[in-house]
TrEMBL record:
Transmembrane segments: none annotated. Coiled coil: none annotated. This is Four helix bundle protein. It holds the Pfam family 23S_rRNA_IVP. PANTHER family: FOUR HELIX BUNDLE PROTEIN. It comes from Muiribacterium halophilum.
C-alpha cells in the first residue's frame, strides 16, 4: 500500500466519523461545547492518528500512533455509553456504533 487512504482501518474509521456526527446532531444545544465537542474530537482523532502514523514512515512511529488511535476509540466508546445512559442517544444507535468499533 502506498497511501493511508487504502487502509481498511482508516476507511472504516471515516465511516465511524460520519455515523457519530449524525448521532451527535441531536445532542442538546447546551452540550455543543461540552459532550458534543468531546465526542466529535475523539472520533476525529481515530482516522487522524492512523493517517499521521502512516505518514511517519517508521514502523515504531506508526505503531505508536495506532495506540493513540485505539485510546481515542475507547474514549469515544465510553463517551457514547455515557450519552446513552443520560438519554442523548438511543441504545440502537449505541449498538450500531459499537459494532463498527469492534470491526476496527
Amino acid at each position: 500500500m502506498t497511501n493511508y487512504k487504502d487502509l481498511d482501518v482508516w476507511n472504516k474509521s471515516i465511516t465511524l466519523v460520519e455515523k457519530v456526527y449524525v448521532i451527535t446532531k441531536i445532542f442538546p444545544e447546551e452540550e455543543k461545547f461540552a459532550l458534543t465537542n468531546q465526542v466529535r474530537r475523539s472520533v476525529i482523532s481515530i482516522p487522524s492518528n492512523i493517517a499521521e502514523g502512516w505518514g511517519r514512515k517508521s514502523t515504531k512511529d506508526y505503531i505508536r500512533f495506532l495506540h493513540i488511535a485505539l485510546g481515542s476509540l475507547y474514549e469515544l466508546e465510553t463517551q457514547l455509553i455515557i450519552s446513552e445512559k443520560i438519554n442523548y442517544i438511543k441504545d440502537e444507535d449505541l449498538q450500531m456504533i459499537v459494532l463498527i468499533i469492534k470491526d476496527l
